[in-house]
Amino acid sequence: MLKDFSGADHIYIACGYTDIRKGIDGLAAIVQQTFHLDPYARSLFLFCGRRCDRVKGLYYEDDGFVMVYKRLDGGKYQWPRTPEEVVDLTSQQYRWLMEGLCIEQAKAIRKSSPKDLF
After folding, report:
1. Contact 5, 70 (CB under 8 A)
2. What pTM did the predictor assign?
3. What pLDDT is attached to residue 106?
4. Does 93 or 26 have the greater pLDDT score?
């Protein structure tokens, strides 16, 4: 489910370590109080613990919250560890993260606009 998630307008990751033992109310409070974002928006909020092999997601549908939890069998997520920061990912960055890659790929071809070409 998380690999192909397309229902959200935004995908935010909570950088740093999060106590992923928290439930829906605890994660929603982090979204509101720490990042000053609306947990009821059409946004997926992702959290990662210290081990980097588990991620929790929080998403609000029309009638309630959905919380997903994923534990990798092998490997780890390349999770940014800047504390107290939230990052709004592009769809490409989200795919990289779910594939175990860093969200800032040094060799990725950056998109340019026509004005940048001349």
Report:
1. no
2. 0.83
3. 66
4. 26
